Amino acid sequence: MSENNNNKRTDLFTHLPVRIGLAWLSGLALAGIIIYLINSHAPTTTVAGNANIMQMLKSGSEANPDSFCALTVSPDNACLGVPTALCSKDLEMAQIAWKYFENNYNPKTGLYNAADKYPSTTMWDTGSALAATIAAHDFGFIDDKDFDERIQTMFKTLVNMELFNKEAPNKAYNTEQTEMVDYRNQPTTDGIGVSVLDLARIVSWLNTLSCMHPRYAYPAQKVIERWDMKRLLADGQMYGLYRDPVSKEIKVVQEGRLGYEQYAGKIFRSLGYDQRISATYDNEFRATINIYDVPVAYDQRDPRDLGAYNYVVTESYVMDVVENGLDAENRPLLDNIYKVQKRRWEQTGIVTAVSEDNIDQEPYFLYNTIFTAGLPWNTTTDKGVRYDNLKTVSTKAALALAMLFPDDPYSKTLAYTVGNAYNPERGWYSGIYENGGGYNTSITANTNGIIMSLLLYKKYGEFYPSCRACKRGLTSKLANTQPCDACATQ
Q1: pLDDT tens by residue, 80-125
Q2: What is the CA radius of gyration of the chain?
Q3: CA 196, 116, 183 angle in degrees (round to 5)?
Q4: Continuous H helices in 297-444
Q5: Residues 6 or more apart from 311 whose CB is under 8 A from it?
Q6: Regarding the domain delimited by 89-162+257-463+484-488, which CATH topology (the fold level of the hierarchy) does it fall under?
Q7: Do 293 and 376 form a contact (C-beta atoms < 8 A)?
Q8: pTM for the full model?
Q9: What is the pLDDT of residue 351?
Q10: Which Pfam families does the UniProt entry name for this protein (predicted)?
C-alpha cells in the first residue's frame, strides 16, 4: 500500500502541467524576494516631481506637509485677530441680505444690479456688492469655487470696461453689457462723468478683498492702475468730473462734504495720495449746530456756490468707523450722530435712524437727513426739493447704529423697529415710512451690502486697521505723491 502511494506522488510531480505551474510559483516568489531586497536598500528620500499624483491627492497634510492638500489651503488669517462667533440671528439676517445678490447677479459680467431687477450699477454699488460677496464666502453661503468665479469674472469686467474720457469709471454701467449708461440706464457713447466718492467705495473693498484673500491683490492693483487720478485727487481734496449735457464740455468740480468726504479721503490717503483736507474732519469747512442740545458737525460750504449740499446722515459716519477704524476724531462725531437721533425719539416718540435711500415711489431717491440746507430733519432731493411727508426709518442706518452701540437701550428699539422689514425671497427693504405709510419696499445692493458688511465687521472688527496689522491689502505704490501725513509735516 505504501509503495503504491509513493508511485502516485512521483507520477503527480512528473506530470507536465504541474511542473509548469510550480515553475511559475517559483518565479513569482523569486521576483518578490528581489523587489523586497531592492526596496530595503533604496534611499528613503523621494523627489517631489516623481511622487505619485494619486498619493498626493489622497495623503493628508499632517502626514505629508508638502502634499497637494496642504498647498491649496487658504492663507492664515490669524493676523486679523480672533473672530467673534456670529449668532443664529446674525446669520439669518445675512442670508436674507444675500438673497438680494443671488437674485441680481449677472454671471456674464460679474456685476450685480444696484436696485432689484434693474440692470444698472455704479462703482459705489459694485463696492457694496463686493463687500456682500466677501461676507457670503466667509459665512459659508458660497464655496471657494463659486467665490473665485464671481471675483474673477468681476475682475475681467473691471479691467476691460470703457472708462469715462479714458480717465476713470463712468458714473453708471449696464450690468448685462457693461456699456456706459446715464442714470436712466440709457447707453451713452461719451459717458456722463466720474464720481470720486464712488471710486473710494470700491477701492475700500478691493483692499479688504486683497487682505483676506491675497491672491487677488495683484489683479486688484491692476484695476486701479487703469485710472488716471491726476484731476480727481489734487491739492488735498477730491474732484469729480461731469459732462455738460448741452455743451458736452467736461467740468471738474470739487466733490465731497463733511462725512462722506472724510470716509473717502482716508481711503485714498491710505494709497499715498495727498488728502490733507479731505481726510480730516477738523478742516476749515467744518461748522457745528446744536440740535436737541447735541452738537452736530456739518459742512458750511454754500451749495449755491458749489452745487452740492451737505447731507448729515448716519451712513457716512458708520462706514468710516467700520472700514477705516474708530479714532479720536470720528468717535465723538459718531457718538453725537447716535445721540441726536435718540434725543429726537425721546422728545417726539418717533423712532429715528436717517440716511440716504431709494424709495418705492416718486422721486425714488431721497436724502433723509439730520441736517441739511439750514434745516434739521430735512428730507430732500439732490436739487433741494423737500419731501418731509416721505421720511423713513432707514433699515441700514437702524441696524448699523444698533450694532455699534449694543449696550444702549435705544439700540434695541432700533433693531426691533426694522427687524421685519424684509422679503425673505428678495432681501431687506430700504426702510419704513415714519408716518405709517408701511414699508419702503425698495430693495437695493447698498442696503443689503451694508448689512452684510456690518456683520463681517462684527466678526473681525475694523477692516483697514486689521489689514495694516496683517501687512496686506493695496499698496501706496499707486500714487505718485507723498501721503498727506508727510505733506502736512513739511
Answers
A1: 888 999 999 999 999 999 999 999 999 999 999 999 999 999 999 9
A2: 32
A3: 40
A4: 303-306, 314-319, 330-348, 395-404, 409-418
A5: 257, 259, 356, 367, 369, 372, 380
A6: Glycosyltransferase (1.50.10)
A7: no
A8: 0.84
A9: 98
A10: DUF3131
